[in-house]
Amino acid sequence: MMASSYSAKDEDGHITVSGPGGGTLRNKKPENTAFKQQRLPAWQPILTAGTVLPAFFIIGLIFIPIGIGLYVTSNNIKEFEIDYTGDDTSSPCYNCAQNFSWNNTKSCTCIIPFQLDQPYESNVFMYYGLSNFYQNHRRYVKSRDDSQLNGNIDSLKKPSKECEPYASVDNKPIAPCGAIANSMFNDTLKLFYNDPNGTSVPILLTSTGIAWWTDKHVKFRNPGGNNANLTAVFQGTVKPVNWHRPVYELDTDPENNGFINEDFIVWMRTAALPTFRKLYRIIQKNNNMAPTLPRGNYTLVVDYNYPVRSFEGRKRMILSTISWMGGKNPFLGIAYITVGSVCFFLGVVLLVIHHKYGNRNNSANISN
Amino acid sequence: MLRRRLNRWFGGEDRRVDSRTIYVGHRPCPANEVFIPPKFCDNRIVSSKYTVWNFLPKNLFEQFRRIANFYFLIIFLVQVRASFVCMPTQTVISDIIFFKIRTSWLPLVFLTVLICSQGYEDWLRHKADNEVNKYRVTVLEDGRRIQKESEKIKVGDVLEVDEDETFPCDLILLQSSRDDGTCFVTTASLDGESNHKTHYTVPDTERDVESLNATIECEQPQPDLYKFVGRMHIYKNNEEPTLRSLGPENLLLKGATLKNTQSICGVAVYTGMETKMALNYQGKSQKRSVVEKSINAFLLVYLCILVSKALVCTTLKYVWQSKPGQDEPWYNEKTLKEKETNRYLNMFTDFLSFMVLFNFIIPVSMYVTVEMQKFLGSFFISWDKDFFDSEIEEGALVNTSDLNEELGQVEYVFTDKTGTLTQNNMEFIECCIDGHQYKYRDASSEVDGFCVTDGPMNTVQQKAGREREELFLRALCLCHTVQVKESTEGFIASSPDEIALVQGAMRYGFTFLGLESKTMKILNRTNDVEMYELLHVLNFDPVRRRMSVIVRSISGETLLFCKGADSSIFPRVKQEEVEKIRMHVERNATDGYRTLCVAYKHLTPEEYDQVDSGLREARLALQDREEKLMAVYNQVETGMNLIGATAVEDRLQEEAAETMEALQGAGIKVWVLTGDKMETAKSTCYACRLFKRNTELLELTVRTLEYPGKRREDRLHDLLLEYHKKTVQDAPPAKTRVARNWSSQDFGFIVDGATLSMVLNSSSENNLHDYKDLFLQICQNCTSVLCCRMAPLQKAQIVKMVKNSKGSPITLSVGDGANDVSMILEAHVGIGIKGKEGRQAVRNSDYAIPKLKHLKKLLLAHGHLYYVRIAHLVQYFFYKNLCFILPQFLYQFFCGCSQQPLYDAAYLTMYNICFTSMPILAYSLFEQHISIEMLLENATLYRQIGKNAMLRWGPFLYWTLLGVFHGLVFFFGVWFLFSNPALQDNGQAFGNWSYGTIVFTILVFTVTLKLALDTRHWTWINHFVIWGSLAFYVFFSFFWGGVIWPFLRQQRLYFVFANMLSSVSAWLVIIVLILLSLLPEILYVVLRKLFLFNFNQKSVKGIFCHFSGLSNVFASRWKSLVVFILFFGVFFIFFLFFYCV
Questions:
Q1: Are B899 and B951 in a shared domain?
Q2: To the nearest whole number, what is the mean pLDDT of chain B?
Q3: Which residues of B form the catalytic set?
Q4: Residue at a domain's end among B651, B676, B704
Q5: Which of B4, B122, B331, B900 best probes binding to A when mutated, by most A CB atoms within 10 angstroms?
Q6: B1001, B1053 in Cβ contact below 8 A?
Q7: Measured between CB atoms, which of B330, B930, B980 is closest to A329?
Q8: How confident is the model at residue B1020 (pLDDT cuts 50, 70, 90)?
Q9: Is B384 close to A30, i.e. CB distance below 8 A?
Q10: Using CA atoms, how far apart are residues B198 and B492, in angstroms rounded to an integer?
Q11: I need a labelling partner for B1052 at 20 to 30 A (CA). Which of A238, B32, B152, B572 fits?
């Protein structure tokens, strides 16, 4: 500042405008510590061809077998998929799809025969799949009240605003509120095995164990505890508009009724993509050596309640076995083989380059 | 400064009048004109920027000039508005309201802190101003002495100033306590010259200051320190007024200090902001670094990306919705309010929602981190013990942390000479008598150094005759204008080297005792006092470049002693003596010593009479006095006998030459800007090795402009063209020049202040622009430039000129005195040396160091590292936010463009704050990609980061592409995986939050590991922070997903993370995608290394070729793109191949 040059007294410069550490420095020798002198001991790795080449080969050698393993595993998974949307005149569900109306109290049933070419061993998982169904739409995703679902009585009587427009009907709170709950998948799928001798044997479908354990036991709770009388608890609430039954009539088993009904919980876990599948039932494997689902003819009986034609959606039923890596998906195997091969390939290329140019220059490699 | 500018624009009244009239002591004059008390500005100094009233608006305006701040303000308003006012629009914000509101406050808080700190700084300035403005001064009013505050001084006041006080404004000297009507003044704080200058009272005002009745007419204030024109009318008892002309020798400048004179009286002519000092003061403007400019440029790019993303999404949303059944399927109906809202308003709010959703791409946290990095990083400068100077017990001082990285970008260094390059401490080194060299050995080693018989002469062989020796020493003792300071036995002289010579002679046994009534007394070797009558002093002037005295000894001999520059002495002495001495002189000159030759001449009484009468006649001449004097001088100073030469060293600062060499090695051009004389400055340049033996000097000075038969303007034109031809046109193209810059012809350019102002200011000339350009081009093609006789403002002008030249190079000014303040303020980076000349430079600088030698480490090590660190920080931040937001953008294509966030709100918020912030901060504080020792040893490394190498568009594109690649890999890798969401071994399926969490996990790990790959210097802190933040992420995710949070409306992430980890597929996909993302980087690093070795072996040999790798890294970012694309191609082909199989 020009002003300060005025008087000689101010020459000791006690005005230090801004600046970190300006004041602390005066008359103080900086400490000679490794930290302050930027001399902290340090590891100084350098990526060189020498270190990276083996890494590439090792990655290649590890990833390719893993990839092959994954690919084989995925290929060994048996999966059967049947589309029962019924927008095709030849489809057995065509009529049901055409005649769908929200006012129908009696559900329309369609019977779809199909054939399994291979026997399905071990547990078989039955999924329903929906396409072009935007469970991940923002308006949809947030349209729920987790505290209501967790058994909070206040939220039961007064659902969150997020549930609009599915929060209340005629000033009566909807339980469970929100668009997700309201649109719960309500087709009933039944499976029959057509014995070669002509009888049709129903296949036992387990409806528990399809939801995450934590969801079923912690995140979702019936109001007033799981043993309470659900009908009484839900007194004063109304069922979601599109539901045929109130929430406390979803199942007869009290362990699987109300908010802790697993079908409901599964539905409430919103899917990531507009084409998705959700676990519907599990077909437990037999105790004997026979395959869970032997090859042969089967019949799928569908109570057709769920309309998808209005948004050009599709419905599927999927039967799948499961490996340790989950359902059938060749992607992982391919990804691993690809990355492994790329690494290996690059390793070779690098090796060639290294040998051609690199070796004789090693003398110049002065470490820094 | 604004006020000054306003005055300039609007104060037309003032401008039109070329002169001002001052009534001394406000006494009306009996002149014919009416007394109108004229209006002048008061003596208040304003260096503060704001007042209480304009602080907020002005400061806010400055803040929002930064694009980023403005952007954050807008985003904040959008969010607040969207979340509070129009709830029904239900933008994403309401989804993530809990965190969002808090985070969007962040920049605002940040801004407030910034404003407060600036307010505090300005308050300090106000305080400093006040201290000056309230300083008590003595005013003579109607014969009384009145104490007044400095700011109350008005033009025309008569002031009294005591010894060692600074003048409070520009004064005309009326009365001095010294008998001879002179006073001594140091102007160290103005122009850096610490010697005493003599100023003279106006004749006839001496006696009666109290009752003086006079007016002063002088020019309007102008910044040139050495120019002043005015005249004084003195009215005495109705006599005809006496007219006295006033020159700079009568003017005492504000800021100068009165020395060796008890007190003076003077009348104020310029006050306050109109003093020459204030006019030379440059306002302290906020400096912005190149990095900040780059950030702004990148910010604009990302803003465009952001807006276009939002536009694309909005458009797609409405396209998608127009399909039947999509907008409002039965399962997902709109609320009543949503239905009612105007369609266009909806579109707009959708657009804003997308903006908010994607706004993370412009990282608020980057600004916070950059500020933190700068703030914390600057501690390393002040902590550096290498910067500690035990003499002054201080280390480096950081006044601003905004410019750390700028230290790594410097292309031009402007240095002051006195006190910066040199210690301003002249020392007599050796002399040469009749061609024999006499080197003085230190008195400490030679106890009786002054003894005649055993004196220092004995230490060297007695080569010249004793008589010659004594003659030489007498000449040194007599031929000067030194005065003996009464009190302390010290010497006072207008030039420090005169003192050095007298002191030198003293060491050899001849002591100058003083001048008493025209008699010079010398104590000779035998301790006898010799008396000489001083007859005439033929003063020094820069054109003649020599001075002489004519003395008469006791014995009646009349002698002329002459000393001066070799070039002006040699032609005037008997030629046979020259050769012996020329050799010594030349050697001394290239060693960087100031050399002077000493000659003498016997004058016969007849000759002397002739000279005497000639001189008297010339001195009385009214016209062309100067020319006539010069003629007599030239006439008498001929045919002399050369006795010898002296060498005086202007002591350099410690390691000044090494520092300069290192800077030049780093590709930095060093310009010396000094207020000093050309000879002194030139020898300093030689000593600092800025000019080397083979450097061809191009001079553009007052001396070279003196050319018989030509106007100075024409001569200037000719010279400029000639030099331009030499340096620019004939020079080989720049590329080859760099390669062999030691072998090719170096040019040094010397220009002085007067010539410079001709070049810059000759506005009437029509080819003015050519001049400036020519001048600049010449300068830029010279290795070193020396500008001497510079006024402070001219220094700033030079800096400004270079700063604004093509390519806008980064400039750095270093100086220690108040005269350097303007250039320190003007340059991109201002460095103050904590020298002896007060603290002004330090206070106005951005960084202050105790010694010049510290500049080397400051630039080469600290600057380099800071630049690399911050450049990496900036690029990394943009990169990591791009690959953070890109998956979210891509997700919009799969969720009906409904602004559904991919990640949970906690992740969105914590990503930049917790998960990825610490590693990059640690990196940007501790990274040393090349060790400090190596940086200091190899100055050339500095060139590799020049021209903002790491933040140009090439590297930016590389990082952006990398971010895009990573974003694509993350999103689509997981997308492929989710084609079957049954990923657990119990057949259960994952939902959208699992999708986001997997992507996010890959993201956090990749981004952190990418930084780990870039880290070359792993201290324990880096380890701790990198692995720590990954561990923290995992820990946090468990924690966040492990509890049902009562304050959360939705428990979206409940056990999502744990479930993800229970899925083998998720593990596998995370591993493979991380590896895939990092592969190109690894590949690139390795390939670069391989090819660089190869390249270096072929092209240059030498140790640092190894490190030139770095430059090629930055230069060859384009090559990296090729690698990148190739890699991508290979990968894609493989993938397709296997997928088809």
A1: yes
A2: 79
A3: 416
A4: B651
A5: B331
A6: no
A7: B980
A8: very high
A9: yes
A10: 10
A11: A238
Q: How far apart are CA B862 and CA B383, in angstroms?
A: 12
**Is B950 part of any domain?**
yes
How many structural domains compose chain B?
5
- The verdict on a CB contact (< 8 Å) between B985 and A42 is no
Question: CB count, 10 Å around CB of B635?
Answer: 11
Give the DSSP letter string of B884-911: HHHHHHHHHTTTTT----SS-HHHHHHI
CB contact under 8 A, A38 and B932: yes
- Contact between B815 and B416 under an 8 Å Cβ cutoff? The reply is yes
**Beta-strand pair B412-415/B669-673:** parallel
Check if the beta carbon of residue A227 is closer than 8 Å to that of residue A284: no
Inspect the interface and report whether the beta carbons of B1093 and A312 lie closer than 8 Å: no
Domain boundaries of chain A, sorted by first residue: 49-76+334-362, 78-321
Q: What is the Cα–Cα distance from B257 to B254, expressed in whole angstroms?
A: 8
Report if residue B102 sits inside a domain: no
- What span, in angstroms and rounded, lies between the C-alpha atoms of B805 and B808? 5
Q: Which residues of B touch A337 (CB under 8 A)?
A: 1138
- B1130, A342 in Cβ contact below 8 A? yes
Which of B95, B281, B1103 lies nearest to residue A2, judging by beta carbons? B281
Same domain as B160, residue B181: yes
Task: Say which of A22, A42, A271 has its CB closest to residue B981.
Answer: A271
Q: Apex CA B279: angle with CA B278 and CA B280, to 5°? A: 90
Do B413 and B431 lie in one domain? The reply is no
Q: How many residues does chain B have?
A: 1141
- The encoded tokens of residue B204 equal 């006839």
The whole-angstrom separation of Cα B286 and Cα B284 is: 7
Q: Is B125 annotated as a binding residue?
A: no
Residue B880 marked ligand-binding: no
At B855-914, the pLDDT tens digits run 999 999 999 999 999 999 999 999 999 999 999 999 999 998 888 999 988 898 889 888
Work out how many CB contacts closer than 8 A connect A with B.
429
Are both B371 and B500 inside the same structural domain? no
B46-96 pLDDT, tens per residue? 777 777 788 888 877 777 666 677 777 777 777 665 554 333 334 444 444
Q: How far is CA A70 from CA A73, A364, B1001, B1076, in A?
A: 5, 45, 22, 17
Last residue in a domain, options B830, B849, B868: B849
Residues of A in contact with B1044 (CB under 8 A): 150, 218-219
Chain B residue with the nearest C-alpha to that of A126: B987
The H or E element that residue A304 is part of is: strand A296-304
Domain of B633? 427-442+466-651
ipTM of the complex: 0.91
Residues B363 and B477 in one domain: no
B518 plus B616 within the same structural domain: yes
**Which of B1038, B1086, B1088, B1137 should we substitute to test contact with A (largest number of A Cβ atoms within 10 Å)?**
B1086
